[in-house]
Amino acid sequence: MAFSESKMPNKDLTPFLKWAGGKRWLARDYVSFFNMKGIRRYVEPFLGSGAVFFSIQPESALLSDLNIDLVETYRSIRDNWQAVKRALGRHHKHHSPEYYYKVRSSIPKDGFARAARFIYLNRTCFNGLYRVNCRGEFNVPLGTKTSVILDTDDFGAIADRLARVELVAEDFEKVIDRCGVGDFIFADPPYTVKHNNNGFVKYNENLFSWADQERLQCSLARAARRGARVIVSNADHPSIRELYNGCSINTLWRHSVMASESARRKVTSEVLVQF
């Protein structure tokens, strides 16, 4: 089943992070998949920028990511967004190439300062990537963006939305195993497939292997049998379609934004699987 992009108006809260593989396009163009009628709790085990969460704004949610720094940033905004905003303002004032690498090499002791550092690096690094070396140190080089404070920033509204959210840093299987009747699970894992040498996919293989893809499918199937509503986005690839054989597989079209040069960006497809 193939769907073309709709022109529904976007009234969501703008995510404060840019995230490789983020789903702003999905929340904007395919919102009909996220019908929350009869749903008690929205669950997202691969949080990233939270584009779908901020778009549909559920009353109750369980949000998780294995990236502890990311989860701490969300918690810091929820608990004291003013402190995070003040620290981010200092980064805005001093931003320069030299300053970027100074901040990148240092880790503040204060949690709100760490959150501001995370946002600052995300907004000024290359393509909004999150990558660490073998020592766990963020190592993405400086990008071309110079905006540290954005017109779309509304940390107060984001904090209000996060006030009724459970934020955890756990493996996806632990989170999904907590779900059942009344839960809506949206899983957006890193896109790894069999027999694909694409650079981004190959990099993700180190973070999320094909064995993880199989483990995810099994955990989602168990949750669906317990009564949870489940959808998962993934690469449009024969290995993914085979993995989710028996489910409803929808082909979604979007403009790729991963290429470094705009001329190389083109319309591409992904799949949205419904259990």
Write the layout of secondary structure elements.
Elements: E1 2-3, H1 24-29, E2 41-44, H2 51-56, E3 61-64, H3 68-94, H4 97-104, H5 111-124, H6 155-162, E4 165-168, H7 172-176, E5 183-187, H8 199-207, H9 210-225, E6 229-235, H10 238-243, E7 248-255, E8 267-274
Parallel strand pairs: 1-7, 2-3, 2-5, 3-4, 5-6
Antiparallel strand pairs: 6-8, 7-8
Helix pairs in contact: 3-5, 3-6
Question: Any overview of this molecule?
Answer:
The chain has 275 residues and is α/β, with parallel strands linked by helices. The two termini are 14 Å apart. It has an 8-stranded mixed beta sheet with strand order 1-7-8-6-5-2-3-4, sandwiched between helices. Helix 2 links the parallel strand 2 and strand 3.
Short précis:
The chain has 275 residues and is an alpha/beta fold.
Question: What descriptive keywords fit this protein?
Answer:
275 residues, alpha/beta, eight-stranded mixed β-sheet, 38% helix, disordered N terminus
Strand content: 15-25%
Q: Level of helix content?
A: 25-40%
Tally of alpha and pi helices: 10
Outline, from the CA principal axes? globular
**Gap between N and C termini, in Å?**
14 Å
Main sheet properties: 8 strands, mixed
Count of distinct strands: 8
**CA-based gyration radius:** 18 Å
Strand arrangement within the widest β-sheet reads: 1-7-8-6-5-2-3-4
Low-pLDDT parts are: 2-11
Order of helices and strands: EHEHEHHHHEHEHHEHEE
- Structural class by helix and strand composition: alpha/beta
